[in-house]
Amino acid sequence: MKRGLITWDKTEIPPAVFERRVDRVRRVLGDRDLSALVVYSELWRSNPARFFSNYMPYFNRAFLIIPRDLPPTLLCGLSPRVYGWIRSVTTIEDVRPAGNFAKPLFEIAGERDWTRIGALDLDQFPYDLNKAIRSGTVEAVNVESPAVYVPAEDETELAMRRKAAAMADQILSEEMSRGVGSIDHHFVGGLERRFRRAGAEDLIILLTNGHTVPAPPIGAILEENYSVSLAVEYRGHWIRLSRPQASSPVMAECRKQWDSQPGLAERLDGSYPYECRAGGMTARHIEVVVSGKRLFYGETIL
After folding, report:
1. In what order do the strands lie in the sheet with 282-290?
2. Mean pLDDT for all residues in the chain
3. Cβ–Cβ under 8 Å, residues 51 and 157
4. Torsion angles phi and psi, residue 59, rounded to 5
C-alpha cells in the first residue's frame, strides 16, 4: 500500500521546519567551504532526504542536492509524469531526471562553478555511485551525519514519532482483548484496517502465543496471553512497539522490568543501523516469562 506514498500535512510539519533543517546544512557547508551537500535516497536509506525535504519514495534511487545558496534540486529515476506530484508534496521545485546520477550531478556543478561538494555519509553510498562521484571532476568530501542530520535532536521529528507511538498504543489497547480466541490472520487484518484508516503508510505486524518470538500470522488461534510486535510508519516516521495481552498485574510487571533495564536495547525500530548511534533513536524490547509463556513489551526510545 505504501511503497512510495508521500503526504504532507503542513499543519503537522510546517515549511519552516524544513527551512530550519536546511539552514543547518548550509551553515556546515559554509564552515567547510563546500558548495552543496548530496543526500542519497533509496530503499535502505530514505530517512535523510525525507528529513530535509519530505521526499520519501524509497523504492527508487535519488540524489537530493542542497546548495549553499540556492533552493534544493532533486535528481531521481522516476518518470517525469510524477514530477508535478513530487513538487506538490515536498519542498522541492527543481526536479530532474537522473540517468546515471553522476553525470547530471557534475553537469549542475559545472553550470554553477562548483569545485568542492559534500556527500552525506559518502562511504555508505552504493559502490557504483561512490566510485563515480569520487572519480569525477569535482572534489567530493564526506560529511558525516551527526554534523547535519540528528533526528533525535529535532523536536518536530520527535513529535511525529511520539504521535505514531501514541496511535499504535491506543489501537492495540483497544483491540488486543478482542483478539483472544480469534484466528491470527483475521486479527491482523482488523489491525491493518484500523492502522490504515488512522494514517499509517506502512505496517509490519508480528504475533506470538508465547512459545516463540513474534512472527507473521500462521492461522493459529490466539490464546489468552499473546503478544503483538509492530513496526509502524506514519508520514515517513517509523516506530516500533510491542505489547502483551495479559492481566493488569502482568502488564505492571512488564513495565516494571522494562523500566529496570535501561541498558537493554534492540536496534529494530525502522531506523537503519547508521542512525542508531549515541544520541539517536532506537527501540528497547524485553521478554517476560509468565506461567511458562514468553510475553514481549517494548517502545521506541532515545
Report:
1. 200-208, 226-234, 237-245, 293-301, 282-290
2. 89
3. yes
4. -90, 0
| Ramachandran region, residue 298 (left: φ > 0; alpha: ψ -120 to 50; beta: rest) | beta
**C-alpha cell recorded at residue 121:** 555519509
Tell me, yes or no, if the pTM score tops 0.85. yes
Amino acid at 208: T
Nearest to 186 by CA among 143, 213, 218: 218
Residue type for position 219 = G
Cell of 290: 509468565
Locate 52 and state its grid cell.
Answer: 530535509
- Across the range 125-144, mean pLDDT stands at 93
Which pLDDT score is estimated for 274? 45
Distance CA 301, CA 266 (A): 10
List, in order of start, the domains of the chain with CATH numbers: 15-149 (3.40.350.10), 152-301 (3.90.230.10)
Q: Are 106 and 133 within 8 A, CB to CB?
A: no
Q: Give residue 141's identity as a one-letter amino acid code.
A: V
End-to-end CA distance of the chain: 29
The residue that leads in pLDDT, 255 or 92, is 92
Of 13 and 275, the one with more pLDDT: 13
For residues 138-146, average pLDDT: 94
d(CA 222, CA 211): 12
